[in-house]
Amino acid sequence: MNKLLSTALFLASTATFANAPGAPGIVPNWSSAKKVQAATSADLESKVWFTNAQGMLTETYYPNIDNAQIKDSQILVSDESSFMVEERISTIQKVEVLSPSLVKMTNIDTGFRFQIEHTYYTIPGTQVLVDKVKVEAYQDGLSFHLLVNPALENTGYNDQGYAHQDKLEFKENATRLVVRSTSGFEKTSVGFVGVSDGWQDLNDNFEMNWSNSQAINGNVAGMAKLSVPAQKGTYEFYVTYNFAGDNQFNESYLASGMNAYNDGWNKLIDGYKLPKLKNQAHKELYKRSIFTLRVHEDKEVRGAMIASLSKPWGDETFEYPGVFTGGYHLVWPRDLFHVGLALVSAGDLETPLRALRFLKSVQYQSGEWRYGDRIIAKKGAFPQNVWTDGNAYWSGLQLDQVGYPVQLFAHLYRNLPADQRPALVAEFGPMVRLGLDFIVNYGPWSAQERWEENFGISPSTFSVATAALLEGAKLLGEPRYARIANDWLTKPYDNIHSWTFTTNGVNGGGKYYVRVGGCANYSANWNPNDGSTCTVANSGQQVDMTAMLDQGFLKLALMGLVDANDSRLLVSQKEVNAHIRQKVGEYYGWYRYSYDAYGENKKGRLWPLLSGEHARFALERARTGGLTYEAARREANHILDSYVFFANDGQMIPEQVFEGSGEGTGGATPLAWSHAEYVKLMWSLELNKNVENLLD
After folding, report:
1. HEC states along 294-324?
2. Is there a domain that residue 696 lies in?
């Protein structure tokens, strides 16, 4: 007989243990990435971040934005005789955005025996997360149980759980979490997940029988039977998750904490510029986007802004001892640029300046990469992604992530008052020069393009790096950078077009930019017509180089390097729209590239952030006379509306959405980059120009 099964059968007839059996529990996983809320207080003193998905509390972080401490917490409901309902999977879940920072989740029993409302927030100046709960019981005899699954210190292993009369307590090393409710607890128990936890207990006979007092060193969970009357009626109370004490809070203090939380964010968001908004839906999504972008900055390591407070497909992501899963709560220079530019566009120069300081702190000063015969000194480059403490998680070379910090510097320079620009150059000039020298020495080849997969010459990566050279030459007074950039752009028979624009491709009329040239091996010739093959990195499939379409070539125009009405760009966009664009309702979405396998069932889905590039490309075409501004704005506004459509009920914009419904996949939601693209497009329409173009 299976060991865990035999243990569970034994427990079914056993009431209590001082030490819960079944250590260390099952292999831990994380929660769904389909977040409807990702939040923290607006102040710097409160260092708790939380997320919500599936009607419950999901990953919660403390004291840094990349350090998870709770996997999930939900309420289990039973009648103690015939059924158990789990909020996560057995309710109709509704979401209401109350303000840019507050979301109310309502979970309705499919049998209409009860409904539960949750509104989560953190109290400014404290390390306390609060859940304001409203229970409506539509029949007598119901019992409500709080089930908490911690993941202290970023892992589901090694936790300790203790059940007290009035609280649940969890520890790992110096980290401590205390969970209480103003309703009080009738009974508490802790156990190992999958064996002796409260879910197993309640699922056995629909009644809480166990009272294990401690569970040491494993994947633990705690359950508390809430002191809610077993009569039909409405009951309101608060649940607190405290990382810095053992306080019992009264309800008036907790209620005032919600007001302070909401007021803090309203004041901060009101400090941002507000564009002319088409309707209430865009007003809400714009403010919600500013909120979301600001939430993703760490409070101890200022400027460290992560990609998402989620782990893509987290509920399918299992972890093993000693292996930490970064998910998307890591800093990518690329994502950081897009977020920074969105905030600059909205009138915030301080947050992007902090981001630039963080980038400066992680710029490589030594080390090397080896790619076949290519030996590349790291000095001047930036890590692929890092934790907030600056330690690298992945270690690939992505040339665009060397160009983006230079471009963020240039955007700040352009937007700062003239008398503050010399100080910016003094502080960041050395960082910028190191980055530009790296691009000159090793570009335009990159070990990975913007999708972090294929080596070679990518039009997207090329555009970022080359525009950085041109901007750097201008701002630093270094014409040699511009000479290199112009060679790459225009040198006869040896330029970005000869390297990546095929004239005998397998798609359509055969003339278009390929996703990446020279991708057969590290030393391959950069010839898009040589019939070579590429490996699709996320599937291992071998395909003709010209069969892989993506829209990276749009960056040539978006960065101001090539006229948007260049026939090569237009014919390439036509091929992209014919092959990797999909109609969703009345809108369009775009795939990253042909044969993409990053997604459910090894199939890449539609990425809303890509839509903004097409909208801003239309504005670039109008700028140089290829479209009327009326036509360009009509196209761009329609795409802007698609962001409202793709956003979920919590007004969170996903990384990927499904083709049929337009709903988010199990990938990252929210993705900061997606919200940044929406804000960048909003301001591009407001200003009648593509905000990304520094060379116009």
Report:
1. HHCECCCCCCCECCCCCCCCHHHCECCCCCC
2. no
